[in-house]
Amino acid sequence: MRYLNDNFETWIRSVEKNRQIIEEMRKDVDAFMPDFSDSPDRLSRWGHYYFCDDDGGRLIFDLHSPKKHRCEVCGKVYENDILDGVWTYFYRNRAVVMALVSAVVYKATGERKYFEYSVFVIDFYAHHYREFTLHNKENVICDSYDTMKWGCGKMMPQGLNESIVAIRFVQAIEILRDELDAEWLNMVYETMFREMFHLLAPQATRIHNISCWNLAAIGVMGLAFHDKEMLDFTFGSEYNIHEQLKKGVTSDSFWYEGSIHYNFFLLEGISYLYLFCHIYDYDFGEESSRILTKMFVQAYSYAFDNQYLPNPNDGWPNLNLKTFSYIYHTMARAEGEDSEIGNITKLIENCPAPRTILPLSEPYYCQNQVCLEQLLFNIDFDYSRFTPVKQTSHNFPKSNFTMLRNKNWNVFLKYGLNGKSHAHPDIMNVEIMYGDQRVSRDLSNAGYRSRLCNEWHRKTLSHNTVCWNGTDITSRSPGECLYYDENKIIAKASDVYEGIDYVRTLEISDTCMRDAFSVEGGKDGIYDYIFHFESSVGLTYDWELEDADLGFHDNGYQHILETKRVKTAGADSAVLYGKVGDRMLKIIVSLGDGQELYLLKTMDNPVNRTRNSILVRHKGADAKYQLTMQEQ
């Protein structure tokens, strides 16, 4: 198998849409490459700094503004050395991506300057690679690979990003290989790829998504340059790729860290390695191949019906399967058009939902519609020929997830964790779709260094669960499924807080969704059940409200925008109505003895939008809550 589809040039020339895509790609290259300029003296910094502290919006990477960094939401301009370093990181990533895109434009047009652009960028970084400063994302400078801290990069702020650009360099080389001089290729191998191997190998020291990327990069470089040492390390070292998949993937075919973003992020790196194994006829291993393939198939099972994804734990907001179509295209190149992965890839491409972008390590999509991998690998697929796959309810007990679904409802529940890595303190959180509209979603988070990420997005209060005494959930342990069928889940999490257990029952019918939440353990305190509605959901109610204060002023409570107490006058329930798209839901909130009902305004992600949130407060022990939504 060749890297580039055998029919690439024919289909580019014969299909007008493809010619138009290449013209747009040409414009992107022409806007960047003639002025390309970099220096090893510039230190790159971590991309997670590049978010606004005021609203969580990403700062805009502007090629012409290396010293001023504007928020995409509020327009605030930041100026400091750290953000200048992040700009350098984005610039280098753009340079490497443009080298790849330029190679594709050359193959499509035959115009020699695009060949030269691509080679020039690779040549620059290869010749200067040893001059770049060895450092980590905290800006700690290290003297050598032997003494460096874990996580170091050279061109990039960390080894993870170094692995990403290593693979992109190899991809560009693979496209141009037949026309590249052997002596030049050897120079690139000796001065850059061998150095990258020495940098990355000491960092593959645990079962983790970053180790998978390190191994994938080493393996891709090893395959492309026939380096046995690299291949032996990738497939035979202590934490090799087989061990990563065997120990890091649950029996539900989900990456153990419990983040859907990181599940796909990991699949991106390993799918490149898998493809290169096919190209170079190297045995990826039967068990590892089976695990990897099942992960791609299973991902389609836990997506909502409209192909948006649940978003537990760390990640980015509003992801959908089309966000990650480039990874499916990579895997489909290896598996073939008529494979199960090939069919799912076509289903994703035929989904009408627009693609949601990634704010960091963004792959290349022409006008955010057509990914580079579709052109390179699967340009000749017949996207009108596919087999529908019926999505059904599914429980993932080893991953602590459940998806209930019928013709009207999709309800996703997270009822535990498999450790602290990338975890949010939100055990028993739910996300709900009604029809093709979101009723409530997980906010995920902004960049990890953003103030709101750590003061709001990563707090229990910003999720649909229960807070005890205004503090964050402390458990990082798995939950337990007590009962499951296609319409109902009963899940339990023990010691969510020390001595406090949660049991949540979710049940759907064609017309109704019922949520029953029990707190057990006999431990006194203040228990706040909170449910957040999407900013697009219009609420109406006939409630008398009064200003109120919940009494807590940290752990996210300080970021509540408005607090109103509902005067329920001893009622055993309160009713409101939610307009979801063009449909209406009746929402009934049950109230036990002494329970108080509050209506809050809370922040979305980013915070240029607000959400209406219901909070039911119970004082004492063993709280019980019930919320019902039914069609009107």
The global form is globular
Approximately what portion of the residues adopt beta-strand conformation?
15-25%
Spatial strand order of the main sheet: 11-12-13-14-23-20-19-16
Residues in helices, as a percent range: 25-40%
SS element count, helices: 15
Q: Name the average pLDDT.
A: 97
Description:
The chain has 15 helices and 23 strands. With 632 residues, the protein is of the alpha+beta class. α3 packs parallel to α5, α7 runs parallel beside α10 and α10 runs parallel beside α12. The model has no long low-confidence stretch (mean pLDDT 97).
Keywords:
6-stranded antiparallel sheet; 8-stranded antiparallel sheet; single chain; globular; 23 strands; alpha+beta; 632 residues
What's the structural blueprint in terms of helices and strands?
Layout: H1 8-14, H2 16-32, E1 69-70, E2 77-78, H3 81-109, H4 112-128, H5 159-176, H6 182-200, H7 209-224, H8 228-236, H9 241-248, H10 260-279, H11 286-301, H12 325-335, H13 340-349, E3 365-366, E4 370-371, H14 372-377, E5 394-396, E6 401-405, E7 409-414, E8 429-434, E9 437-440, H15 451-457, E10 466-468, E11 480-485, E12 488-497, E13 500-508, E14 512-520, E15 525-532, E16 538-541, E17 545-547, E18 562-566, E19 573-580, E20 583-590, E21 596-603, E22 610-620, E23 624-631
Antiparallel strand pairs: 1-2, 3-4, 5-6, 6-7, 7-8, 8-9, 10-15, 11-12, 12-13, 13-14, 14-23, 15-22, 16-19, 17-18, 18-21, 19-20, 20-23, 21-22
